[in-house]
Structure formats: structure tokens, C-alpha cells
Amino acid sequence: TPAERLIQFGYGGGYAGEATAWGFEYPHQAVEFWVNSPAHRRIILNAAATDVGVGFSLDLNALSIWYWTAEFGNQFAAPTAPALRLQEPAADLEAMVTSLVTFSWNWPAPLASGEQFVLYLQTNQGDFPVATVSQPTLGTRYALQLAANDLSSGNARLQVNPGNYSWQLRLESIGGTVTVQSEARPITFTIDPDAPLPTPTPTAVLPTITPTPTATPTAGPPQNTPLPPTVTSPPPLITATPNP
Predict the structure, then answer these.
(1) What is the pTM of this model?
(2) pLDDT (tens digit, 9 = 90+) per residue, 167-193?
(3) Is the N-terminal amide bond of 89 cis, ω within 30° of 0?
(4) Where is the stretch described as Disordered (predicted)?
């Protein structure tokens, strides 16, 4: 939107209006078009506008070749607060636990130092942060792809069972302070019928160490006693239970 573009490029005014035209070779032709168009005329004559910026682009390979735009703003009005707008996935999406799901959103303002977007999976056990993003993919659009069977929260793997969940975005600072958050969107994960059955996680068994009988010391070189094998514990596993 015009307001989002003004915010993106650092204009802090509280009003945004835009007039566009294409196919006119000369500027007076574009202005005449705007003046004679009721919708554009209202934008041009709006008393709230105190500033204007005009742009022109020429593209000989484009259909209309000449492109004109006029942006109207008011630097004395209260600044427009940026809005966090979710794009994908749509509410109530159903996806298999093995499918990659695209999460995307629009945020027009540049991020402050240390700020990042955190994606949360909401369950009946609480909210689990599963991904962070600090750079847009293009312009003001942020996006990432995740599969439910490959999620982690902190240092623990998140085992997502099929069922109903919600996801939410939060803009957080380094200390975890939430600046803005989106609405929670429902999402349903289903079983992948073609996926192999999960392999049970092996349980670590501690070896039985038999104490060595005390022997009468004798003269001679010391004997090297082999150390018991090191037991490696499996990584922590958190099971996410669907919302009722």
C-alpha cells in the first residue's frame, strides 16, 4: 500500500495518498488524466496532504512504456503505525507432517538492531518458538519454509503429532520483549501415509561395572586398567500435543 511504502523508506507522516498513470509520454498528460479522474482528483486536492513526491519510469520493453506516480503525505500528522500482515499459509490449512509449509508475512518498517521475528507453534502445552527471521526475502516480505516433522524448539527436537494447532508471529528484541504480534492462525497437521514408521529411540543402558578385588601389591610395572565405555544420552525430545 502507499502507506507501507512511505514507512519502508523512512517517511514518518500520518497521511498517504497515491496517484499513478501509465502510457502518457509527457507529464502534463498524466496530470490532466489525474485532474479529470474523480478518484485521483480527490487525492490531489485532499487538504490533509502537505507534501508531494513525483516519480517517472521509462521502460521500452514494457507494454505502456511511460509510468508516472505522485505520492502525497503529511509530515505534521501523527505517524502511521506499521501493521504486521500475515500472508501464508491461509487460516485452517491442512498439511501432512512431512510437507514443507511456507510461512510469509509483510512488515514495512526496517527492523531495529537486535530485533527479529519469532514463529511460534501454539499447543495445549504452551507456545514453542520454532524459527527466527531477521532479514526480508524481498522488499518488505519475509518468508520461510518448515515441515512439522523437522521442528526444533531451542536445543530440543519437537515431535509434532497429527492434530489441530495454531501459529503466531512475534517481533521481539534481544531480551525477548514483544514489540508487536500477529493474530493466531489455525493449522492442521495430518499423517503422511507414505512416510515410514518412526524408529523407536534406543534407550541407553548403563554397563554393569564389577568392582575389582583388592590384590596384594607386588613389585613390577603398573598395569593400565581400561576405562568403562562412555554412555551418550539421546537428544532431548519434546512431544507437542494438538489443541483440543
Answers:
(1) 0.60
(2) 999 999 988 899 899 999 999 999 988
(3) yes
(4) 206-244
